[in-house]
Structure formats: C-alpha cells, structure tokens
Amino acid sequence: MNIDHFIMTKELLKPCPFCGGKAEESSRYDSDDNRPDGEQLFIECSDCCAKSAEFYAVTINDIHLTPIQRKEQKDNLLQARKDSIEAWNKRCRRKYH
Fold first, then answer.
1. What does the pLDDT look like over 42-88, one tens digit per residue?
2. Residue from 71, 73, 69 nearest 59 by CA
3. How is the chain split into domains, by residue range?
4. Is 90 buried (19+), middle (13-18) or exposed (0-12) by CB count in 10 A?
5. Which is the most buried residue in 8, 14, 34, 43, by most CB within 10 A?
C-alpha cells in the first residue's frame, strides 16, 4: 500500500477491538533528551481509551530546513501515521481445531 491510501484515515480505522468504540488518530509532542524533538503518533479508542503502539517522527520547526529536509520530515510523519493505523487495524486470527 502507498502513503496516499492512508490520507483518509477516518474511513480506514477499524472500530476498537475491545469495546467496538470509535477510533481516532492522536499524537503528543515528545521532547525526550535522548533524541530530537518529535511527535508520538498513535490510535486511541474514544470510549475505552485503548491505544495502539506509539510511532515516533522527528518534527523540527526550523526555518533553515532545506526543501529536501522538509520533504523527508513530511515523509517520516506520514510513515508514522501509516504504521500507527496498521498497528491499530491489525487483528489476531483465531485458529479453531
């Protein structure tokens, strides 16, 4: 799947696997001293607060970034969104014997 497939995430998110509630994209700013500033992206249920794994993307707000650096940053952010959606939508298949 390409990144364009994930632009309309509201239609792509499956309901919560625990309560059936509505899933929403969320993020929080991360300024950990061990890495560059960025965002933690994840999916969260609006009813029971179940949450996917968090995926990190560097987001530097620097006016001196080159166009290539800005594109790389945008691509990393889109990849983190894609990864969080895939993690949320992944469901285990039960095998019955």
1. 999 999 999 999 998 887 777 788 889 889 988 999 999 999 999 99
2. 73
3. 3-89
4. exposed
5. 43
pTM: 0.74
- Report d(CA 36, CA 14) in Å as an integer: 32
Rg of the chain in Å (alpha carbons): 16
| Nearest of 79, 96, 76, 97 to residue 87 by alpha carbon | 79
**How far apart are alpha carbons 21 and 49 in whole angstroms?**
9
How many residues can be counted in the chain?
97
Longest dimension (CA), the chain: 60
